[in-house]
Amino acid sequence: MSAVSDQQSVVPPSDVGARAATEIAVRDWLETQARITSYWRDLLVDRNGDLGLIEALDAHESFLRIAAIRQDPL
């Protein structure tokens, strides 16, 4: 059993709601960061920016979006 599973099994019920609210807030933050990354990428594309930087932003946006929806630890 993983350490994460061990921790989940001993979380007091009163903390479950707080944990869920925190996870929702973090996922919202990750999604916001993905949108901001996409915005900067689009600006670079519109201005014929550096391809390497555009690719880095693409990869970072993808990572953020996956992290925002992922249910298991990264």
**Average pLDDT metric:** 87
Helix proportion: over 70%
Shape: elongated
How many helices in DSSP terms? 3
Secondary-structure-derived class: mainly alpha
Write up what this structure looks like:
By secondary structure, the protein is mostly helical. The chain has one domain. The longest helix has 34 residues. The mean pLDDT is 87.
Features:
74 residues, 0% strand
Blueprint (SSEs and pairs):
Layout: H1 3-9, H2 13-46, H3 51-69
Short description:
With 74 residues, this protein is an all-alpha fold.
